[in-house]
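Before going further, learn to read the protein records used in this course. A complete example follows; check for yourself that the lines match position by position.
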Amino acid sequence: MHLRVIPSRLLLAIVGGSVVVSTAALIAGVSVELVGTAAALGGAVLALATLGDYQITRRTWRESKPEMKRGLPAAFAIGVRKPVTLSITMKGSLRWSCEVYDHAASSLVTEGLPLPLELAGGTETDTLYWVVPTVRGEVQFAPADVRLRSRLGLCEVLERLGEVESRRVFPDFAQVARYAWLAGDRRLQEIGIKTYQQRGEGTDFKQLTEYRIGDPVRHIDWRATLRQARPIIREFQDERDQCVMMLVDCGRRMRAHDTDSVIGTTHFDQVLNAVMLLGYVALQRGDAVGAMTFGTPPEDERSFAARKGKQALQGLMSEFFGVQPTLEHSDYVLAAQQLLRRQRRRALVIIITNFRDEDASELSHALKLLRSRHLVLVASLRERIVGELIMQPLVSSESAIEIAGAQLYEQARRDAFNRLADRDALMVDAEADQLGIALVNRYHAVKRAGKI
């Protein structure tokens, strides 16, 4: 059994002082036998005192019936700093000096640990520390270690407090929340989202309203105009009750990222942000939203059937919050076949991937399958580093080679991507942090054109 005790500084000081005294006695001419006997007796007394101190400390600690409760948020968001509160309740009348180290998951960056505390009997002591999640998924908090100063100060006793607790780490949906605020205040242009809806446009009838200068004359309702004795037009809105299905690539290329300095900015994290932003917008427009993954082992595949309503976005978050990119090859044809089996109703299918020119043949076959039933939009992530290489100053032969290589790579990729375009094909090619805005803009354009 592991003994959860360590010597204190006081004990080490006593032992060190005894060694110094014994050495000085020997130098002074005291016999070795006498010094050895005194040292043995002193050591035995010190060991017994330390053992007794340890036993008394453990017994009195447990008699104090300490309890620790954590104050955790319902969920965490990746890269968002959150406090974790600790409340420790003690019974009895003794005071304890200790340090508390809470065992948060290794993917949580902690600030403020260990916590030095003075615990008084019969009271509740509150403290806190901060955590920053670095990885999506489920995180666990194990019981905390408490390092107690013993009653005589000869040792430090290690005890455990608290229970095992788990929380989920979601992508940072601040962009979605900000979009909701902007949408309510008609400021969508601030994040680059264009507003296509104009009075009288769309495909579904919305209401009759009074004619205003600039409204289309073709929308005038002549019967209502005669009844009201003033011009009345039919106002339309985007067609509702349609379906948006997102096919999310989780293969090895989605592991790329443009920077190491910011948590939660990997390509795949940005893709999930875009998925949730587009899902929010489509649900607000009255459409059903669903998603499925590909490029993962069969046991890790995730699928969310298209649904409508406020609960759909929460369900989508719960299903995809812990998805991570894999080392697998992304099979576009297999993904297309699976989606055709699961989604029989016509939908706007959005394939989100990291396209390379060598994917053109396989992706072209998959698009041909999907376009037989659905309207398909291909969204590809563009690496920022390629653009940075192209734009770097031409100052040496090495930079010239880098610029030429990046230009050739980008041209080959762009040509292959453009060849995928069929008549009226929908394509998006954007950097990871701009993907959400680009998808929402294209979705708005599709709705306005009535293509679904």
